[in-house]
Design brief:
Strands 3-2-4-1-5-6 form a six-stranded parallel β-sheet, sandwiched between helices. α6 packs across α7 and α13 crosses α14 (254-261). The chain starts with a helix and ends in a 6-residue tail after the last helix. It is globular. The relative contact order is 0.18. β2 (36-41), α3 (59-64) and β3 form a beta-alpha-beta unit. The chain contains 16 helices and six strands. It has helices at 4-7, 23-31, 59-64, 81-97, 109-117, 127-140, 142-152, 154-158, 165-178, 182-190, 193-197, 210-227, 229-238, 254-261, 270-290, 305-319, and strands spanning 12-16, 36-41, 67-68, 101-106, 200-206, 295-299.
Length: 325
């Protein structure tokens, strides 16, 4: 359920959407007309040294408008949804106090939902259970454990990819410790989401034509490769303290590049595997978005997407004045 910390957040604009939907361009357009500071809602942008593969805003883009929650962690460190809620809530209040409008931008839907719904009292991590699940995954494969999850928690299994080991492991861990599915804990708090969502405008950039997004994803991955993405991954590997099971290295693109450099499959397959994994990520992001309450949908492949976004923000500002207006 929403905590006391998040129930009384100042009015803010949230700009969400799948990868390659044009969120950065829309955010900069908003910043061109309103006094905003941007809070990144992206679990990959928090990591230093991971720039090309995350499509991190450029130095000039970050200089044009204040950005927050970018480059705040070393790739060896984790960054949880609970930490995001704490940090984002504090930043929103500080931005509001400066007479500016908090603008949350990103595609990590778990962060958006945690901010609105709050965090539940799920069982903490259990090293022994995790070790057993890791052993089962090594011998049977994550798709087999995904099938196990589907048998006990079909709601959670439906929104997870069969190869999403990190989240499958956590969902099965919760079930084995508590005897309750992960979806039970999520449902227990959903009734109070409206209270926390009432002080925000959520704009969702979603494609009317999925093929348009797929073309954008392929173009972005090609651009990343041409810009030296593999060299970026080689630099991370050369540190010697990172490995593929870290949350940072499991980010889409990085995992595929790491596996290619490990020789698990030919390097000439990297482009196709990376594009496919990114398309699967976008599919999951859109599924999450469709479950989020009171979102204002803008077709990101429409001819006047930016104009619609700016109009929605203008209406939101008029209905929810803040010290900067």
């Amino acid at each position: 359920m929403p905590t006391t910390e998040t129930r009384k957040l100042p009015f803010h604009v949230a700009l969400a959407g799948p990868t390659a939907a044009g969120k950065t361009a829309a955010a900069l357009a908003i910043a061109g007309q309103f006094p905003v500071e941007i809070i990144s809602v992206d679990s990959a942008l928090v990591y230093r040294g991971m720039d090309l593969g995350t499509a991190k805003p450029t130095a000039s883009e970050q200089a044009a408008v204040p950005h927050h929650l970018i480059d705040i962690r070393d790739p060896l460190q984790a960054y949880s949804a609970a930490e995001f809620v704490r940090d984002a809530a504090g930043l929103m209040r500080a931005i509001h106090a400066r007479g500016k409008l908090p603008l949350l931008v990103g595609g990590t839907m778990l962060y958006f939902k945690a901010l609105v719904d709050g965090l539940d009292d799920m069982p903490p991590a259990d090293a022994a259970v995790r070790e057993q699940l890791s052993h089962e995954a090594a011998t049977q494969g994550w798709p087999a454990l995904h099938a196990q999850l589907a048998a006990v928690d079909p709601v959670t299994a439906q929104r997870l990819a069969p190869a999403d080991g990190q989240r499958i492991q956590r969902a099965l861990e919760v079930y084995r410790i508590s005897g309750l599915p992960l979806s039970h804990f999520h449902a227990a708090k959903s009734h109070s989401a409206g209270e926390a969502a009432s002080n925000r405008l959520l704009i969702s950039l979603e494609p009317a034509d999925r093929a348009w997004l797929h073309a954008r994803i392929a173009q972005r991955f090609d651009t990343m490769l041409a810009a030296g993405f593999l060299d970026e991954v080689r630099t991370l590997r050369a540190r010697g303290d990172l490995h593929i099971d870290l949350p940072s290295m499991r980010c889409v693109g990085y995992r595929q590049a790491w596996e290619a450099l490990d020789g698990l499959w030919p390097m000439d397959q990297l482009r196709d595997k990376g594009v496919f994994a990114t398309r699967q990520l976008a599919k999951r992001q859109i599924t999450w978005l469709r479950s989020m309450p009171a979102r204002q949908l803008v077709a990101c492949d429409g001819g006047d997407a930016l104009g619609q976004v700016l109009q929605l923000v203008q209406q939101g500002v008029q209905n929810n004045p803040w010290p900067g207006t």
